[in-house]
Design a protein that fits this description.
The complex is a heterodimer of chains A (365) and B (467). By secondary structure, chain A is mainly alpha-helical. Chain A has 14 helices and four strands. In chain A, strand 3 and strand 4 form a beta hairpin. The chains are: A mainly alpha (365), B mainly alpha (467).
Chain lengths: 365, 467
């Protein structure tokens, strides 16, 4: 073995080799390089998964920092958030990033979900990738719901109350569900315990697990191509390695998105409403967060009675069915070989998207 | 004193700001981009590579169109806007720096002429002579920066010059001059690289190896800003007047605890844009030049514009409440005139405001207050709605008495005791309100109507006409 001299000593290579002997670094890089990303005019949608992952990271990091000062008690929560906003150095920034981040995270997940749907990326063998992604959207929304209550300002309290009351209207299981979520007949300390433990333990674990599955499936099965690209002769299709080529582009986009995100976070820091008085009347016109507005608005459209059934029960079944269909319709179209079903899935997706958008905008007015 | 130019919703300051930032974004490229052309042309000769030479011909066309059309138009636009929004400040700058402006204009004309000669002589002059034109262009264009930099930095630090006697050179070569000059030079080089990313991204037929090489080469133009930029920023901040440094420190220290001033926001975002740009350039054109495309280039241009916007905004905010530091407030009021105006009365002192007052009905308290607002406040505030620093929003629930007390206190904004302690908390942030007490009361009457319902406004009008 020759003794390395200063001239021929490559420090980086030496460190990499040393690490590689102990951790299979090169094998991991090679594994990451196996995945190829198709290059075509719809490639922009491939960035959405990476952006969602970025915001998931931001949420975990800022959430972790917020827990240094947040007090999860019915009486102390508001004061602790106020202190985070006004006294803790850079507390406002972390909280503003966390609150804005939650909204942007869900928005990006929606964009990712719809783009994946319309590119028919759910087809075999990627059904589980689609379902795990759908699960991640669901978890993110529950994250939003449980996190919304934690500052315990007026709007947080009453929006949670309305949300839980609405869930309580579900047929059969509704009352039990509401009782379980609240930990009693009213929102109180037990509710906070449940929301907080869900928000900081159960949901992060569930999200990490499902994200791990989602990412592994993508790595193993590769990234899907839209039908129009699949039809092209192989020679006309272009690909690039996910690692390091597409990953570098991902990093570029992360920086760009992060700067835009920080612009909003800084120029419009997330505020805190007045402290809640549980005995007071709910403020007029209280609404849930934007990602629940379509369901909220749909609920209002149903009459009190439909034949022999309570309107609200019918509405809950209807809303549940419509959102549940996002898991079913892609499975029906998983082969892509039945033209009628394939066309139906596209038309259904368009109707779903327009309806969702329309009700969300209507609900916000 | 001059009439005021009232711009609803955004205020006149933002009209200047928007035009000025666009101009700065282009004019800095006009200088840094010139250096880029010269060095890169030299590189093309050294490597004897016609592909680089051909690219430069196209890049110089883009340079010519952007700097001489949009750059020159926005430059004229700034003069129009500052003449309307801040006629007193413009007058001061013109009077004090006539010679420097004249020299700047001569060099600007020379700059244009040299570049036209440079652009139209590609392939017509021998290489050595053509390159000489590029070096001449750098020298001339850099001198325009030299001249403007003295005037701009003077507005923040007059270098001890008292506007009546002494050496004007002290004002021009004020303590901020050299750090600001260096800082702008680094920014110009960085912008030269960012603009080159854009033109390179539009190259569809260029050899991929050459394109990748040039993208990496252009990325290196950001290095001086990354390495030396922060040091020059610190040096620049140390040369600012102490009260301005205090305002910055207060602004930055309150970032931590949430009391986030607009200036602190601007400075914070400047840093975020700088870090973001560095990350984007590293991950994009430097480490992954072969995948670089126009979308990425446009994102880099947008981030560069964002950086310039927040940097210039921060600089403007540091100057508050003055437009020319320690001499003229942002509403055109000269510091030495404050006591005189308070003694004479605002409408007696200000010819245009006084003339407008005569068009109102006698005892029109609201109209008089509105005039006070227009002449003393609109350079920084809008009145109604959710406009820029809207008084409706800022005064929120304050009633007339509370507003009157606030304004009366702000009459002493300029006063500092022997120990350097300001008499009011608004010192360093806002000019003093000036005028007789009845004029200030009229201003309070007007401001109180911004958040009152129409019925109350009518009552106020009736009351004022009866009194």
């Amino acid at each position: 073995m020759s003794i390395p001299t200063l001239k021929n000593l490559n420090i980086v290579q030496t460190v990499v080799d040393w690490l590689d002997e102990r951790v299979p670094l090169k094998a991991a890089v090679e594994f990451a390089g196996h995945k190829e990303v198709p290059v075509h005019k719809h490639s922009i949608w491939y960035y959405m998964g990476g952006i969602a992952a970025l915001f998931m990271g931001i949420q975990f990091a800022t959430g972790f920092l917020l827990m240094f000062h947040y007090v999860p008690t019915f009486e102390g929560a508001y004061a602790s958030v106020q202190a985070i906003n006004m006294q803790v150095p850079f507390g406002w920034l972390i909280r503003s990033m966390h609150s804005w981040g939650a909204n942007v995270f869900i928005l990006v997940l929606f964009i990712h979900m719809f783009s994946t749907y319309f590119m028919k990326a759910y087809r075999a063998p990627r059904e589980f990738t689609w379902l795990s992604g759908l699960g991640l959207v669901g978890i993110a929304m529950v994250f939003g719901f449980t996190g919304y209550m934690l500052p315990m300002d007026e709007i947080a309290y009453f929006a949670t109350k309305v949300g839980v009351d609405v869930a309580g209207e579900s047929p059969f299981i509704g009352p039990y569900l509401a009782e379980f979520v609240r930990g009693g007949s009213e929102i109180g300390q037990v509710t906070m315990n449940r929301f907080f433990s869900l928000h900081v333990i159960a949901l992060p674990l569930a999200m990490m697990g499902l994200f791990g599955l989602h990412a592994t499936l993508i790595q193993l099965q590769g990234i899907s191509e839209p039908e129009s690209i699949q039809k092209l002769p192989k020679a006309e299709r272009k690909y690039e390695k996910f690692f390091p080529d597409f990953f570098k582009k991902d990093v570029f986009v992360w920086f760009a998105v992060f700067v835009a995100f920080m612009l909003v976070v800084t120029m419009k820091p997330w505020g805190l409403g007045p402290q809640v008085d549980p005995a007071a009347m709910a403020p007029i016109g209280i609404k849930p967060e934007w990602y629940f507005l379509s369901q909220f608005q749909a609920l209002k459209l149903f009459p009190a009675k439909i034949l022999f059934f309570d309107g609200v029960h019918v509405a809950m079944v209807f809303i549940g069915t419509v959102f549940g269909s996002l898991a079913v319709v892609p499975i029906l179209d998983s082969t892509g070989k039945i033209p009628f079903i394939s066309k139906f899935a596209t038309v259904y997706g368009v109707i779903f998207f327009i309806g969702w958008l329309f009700l969300t905008i209507w609900g916000s007015l | 004193m001059f009439p005021v130019w009232e711009v609803p919703n955004i205020g006149s300051g933002w009209v200047i700001g928007l035009i000025a930032v666009l101009h700065v974004f282009i004019s800095h490229f006009a200088i840094g981009g010139g250096a880029f052309l010269a060095f890169t042309e030299q590189l093309a000769y050294k490597k004897n590579d016609d592909r680089i030479y051909d690219y430069l011909k196209k890049h110089s066309k883009f340079f010519l169109l952007l700097t001489t059309v949009l750059g020159a138009m926005s430059g004229v636009g700034i003069w129009w806007a500052i003449g309307l929004a801040s006629p007193n400040g413009t007058q001061t700058l013109l009077q004090n720096f006539s010679l420097f402006w004249a020299v700047e204009y001569i060099f600007f004309a020379l700059e244009l002429a040299t570049f036209l000669a440079y652009y139209y002589t590609w392939d017509k002059l021998d290489r050595k002579t053509h390159l000489k034109l590029a070096w001449i262009y750098i020298g001339i264009s850099y001198f325009t920066l030299f001249a403007i930099n003295g005037i701009l930095t003077f507005m923040l630090n007059s270098g001890g010059w008292d506007f009546t006697k002494g050496n004007i050179g002290d004002a021009f070569f004020n303590p901020s001059f050299w750090p600001a000059l260096g800082l702008r030079m680094f920014i110009m080089m960085a912008l030269a690289g960012i603009y080159a990313f854009f033109t390179l991204s539009r190259e569809k037929t260029m050899d991929l190896d050459v394109k990748a090489y040039l993208l990496k080469y252009s990325a290196k133009w950001l290095l001086p800003a990354v390495i030396l930029g922060p040091l020059f920023v610190i040096a620049y901040l140390f040369t600012l007047p102490e009260p301005t440094q205090q305002v910055i420190i207060n602004g930055l220290s309150t970032i931590g605890v949430g009391n986030f001033s607009i200036m602190a926001k601007a400075i914070f975002m400047t840093m975020v844009f700088a870090v973001g740009l560095f990350g984007m350039v590293l991950a994009g054109p430097y480490l992954n030049p072969r995948a670089f495309n126009t979308s990425f280039a446009v994102m880099l241009l947008a981030a560069g514009f964002g950086f310039m916007f927040t940097e210039e905004w921060s600089r403007e905010m540091m100057r508050k409440p003055y437009v020319v530091y320690n001499y003229m407030y942002s509403n055109g009021l000269r510091k030495f005139e404050v006591d005189k105006v308070n003694k004479e009365g605002f409408f007696n002192h200000h010819k245009f405001a006084g003339a407008e007052l005569t068009t109102l009905k006698p005892n029109d308290e609201l109209g008089k207050g509105q005039l006070m607002f227009r002449y003393q406040c609109t350079s920084c505030h809008t009145a109604k709605g959710n406009g820029y620093r809207s008084m409706k929003v800022m005064l929120a629930t304050r009633d007339k008495d509370a507003i009157k007390n606030l304004l009366t206190m702000m009459k002493e904004n300029h006063i500092v005791d022997n120990k350097g302690v300001a008499k009011t908390m608004y010192h360093g942030y806002m000019p003093p309100v000036v005028g007789h007490q009845d004029e200030i009361d009229a201003l309070a009457t007007y401001l109180a109507t911004l958040n009152s319902d129409p019925a109350k406004t009518t009552t106020a009008k009736v009351e004022s006409s009866n009194s």
